[in-house]
Fold this sequence. Notes:
By secondary structure, the chain is α/β, with parallel strands linked by helices. 39% of the residues lie in helices and 17% in strands.
Amino acid sequence: MNSIADNLEKVQERIHEACRACGRDVNDVELIAVSKKKEVPALREALDAGQTLLGENRIQEVMAKQPELPGSIRWHLIGHLQSNKVKQAIHCGFDCIHSVDSTKLMLALNAEAGEQGIVQPILLQVNISGEASKSGLSPDEVIPLLEQATRCMHLDVQGLMTIPPFTEDPEKAGPFFAALCELRDQAASETGFPLTQLSMGMSHDLEVAIREGATWVRVGTDIFGARS
Ligand SMILES: *Cc1c(COP(=O)(O)O)cnc(C)c1O
């Protein structure tokens, strides 16, 4: 098996090549190494290789890992967040929470961030394909939610996130990524939120996501290996 450092280098090369292929600035795309279900030594190996941005999808797991690792790590929450975990989620100090998918959750995060005296960066998760099994806002809920977000003084809404249906051919995800980008453009112009961040693309389709405008790609398997 390749080392995590080697894998990170390969993924960074793919990001560079994808940017070159579509004429984007590589500085506009940042890699989130998705370390869910991986043990602390693996995370430390990634950190030692210079990867300071990690993505996790469970609060309990983050709370267990954070005390074991340096404060230089920036944590992103990419998994579903339940309302009863909001207090802990704010306490974790995430650089960004990608998975805000309801008014209730957004308002609870705003209230708790206010309690803890911080401004929490968030993304709105959109179920762009409309698959019944996926969480996320439907596209037509995004602008109304942003209108409510103008009153959330303790949140910083930075953009949109999506997970397209899995298909063997990564090109099939292209139209979903393009639709998220288009929704972002429309929502930004109607609400005034800049919505600069687009979180989309994973191990097998990051090139397609970058071509369609991703600013954050979330890569787990191709860095840390398969998860059990
Ligand atoms: C697990 C996960 C990823 C990483 O997926 P890989 O296919 O392992 O790269 C990305 N985004 C989300 C939301 C995830 O839950």
